[in-house]
Each structure stands twice: as C-alpha cells, then as structure tokens.
Known about the structure:
Layout: H1 2-72, H2 79-83, E1 93-97, H3 101-109, E2 131-135, E3 143-154, E4 184-194, E5 197-209
Antiparallel strand pairs: 1-2, 2-3, 3-4, 4-5
Amino acid sequence: MKCLSGKKGVALVMVLMIVAITTAMVAVVLYFIQKGTEISALEKKYETAKEASLGAIDVFTKEIIPLAIVTASTAPTASLTTALANFNTITSATVTAVATNACFSDKLLKSTASWATGCSSTSDPKTLPDIRFTLSGTSAVPFDVYTKIVDTISGNTNTSGVTLEGAGAAESSGGMVATQHFPYMYRMEVQGERQQTPSERASYEVLYAY
C-alpha cells in the first residue's frame, strides 16, 4: 500500500510539471505572436514614411533643384519661388518654401563657407528646412517631409563632354582619362513623418551631384 501511495504522489508531480511546461510554452508562443504583430505594424508605418520621403527626394532633386539653379544664375532673389510656382497646383500635395530665395540661391551656387549669414547648415532637417512637402495620407492625417541642403561643394570643371562610356579606361579620341562634369555636389538631410505621430518617420542623408 505504501508503494502505491508513493507512485500516486510521483504521478501528481509529473502532471503538475507537464502543466507548468505547457503553460510556459503557450506563454512563449503568445509573446512571440504579440511581438511579431508589433514589428509588422512598425514596419508598415516605416514603409509609408519611407515612400513619402523618397518621393520628396525625387521631386526635390529632379525637378526643383534644376529649375532653381537656372533661375538662381540670373535672378537669385526669385530662385525658389519660381521653381515652386507650378507645384502647388497638385491637389494631393503642398510644397512650401521655408528658406529665403537668396539663401537657397547661395546653397545652390556657392560652397558652404560662402553662404549668407542665417543660412542654416545644421543636420536636423526640421530646423529651418529649405522646403516642406505636405502629402495627403490614406488615414486623413498627412505626412510632412522636410528637405534641406546642409553642405555644398563645388565640383569639377571638365566640360569636354567626354565621359568614360567606351571600352577602356580612356577614350580613344584623346587618350586621356576625362571625368564627367559635375559643377556642384550637395549633401541633403531629409525626414518624413506623419503629422500628430512623429514616431512614424523615416530619415535619409542624400549625396546628390548635379
């Protein structure tokens, strides 16, 4: 009888251990499911902010800067406003000039050390940005994208038109290595974030050769 009683005690202990292990396993599974859901939500928020930032970078570098450079060389006091004149007709986006025309012209055509006093070169794009894009969002809460040139370097002066697009390291026409003409190089800081939810954001540092 004592032997049977001992076996019953061992069985009870084994059952309790199995219940404890099963409970722990279920708790671990639930924890990872919750964390996976949180990570998926964060990735979705980041992807949205990322796409807004990349779209603003594309417009800023391919549309606004070329137009502003053309104007800045002849009318530096109207470079930015002229470049933005046709953008605010887009119903899903608002493009706002924050920098002055004179400051933006300096950023486009002069090295950083020669910018006028008051032109911001701090790396935080939200501190006196050059341009702010406001893009409509699906949840009725728009995105703000801040773009800012923080450093300008004068490029090379090769205007030969010869670029290394042939079969070797030097073109056959001249026999010398010729670099492509890049008059300016800009370092830009860009940050996109959803209004009212600044934690939903994406930041980029861009090196752009014009």
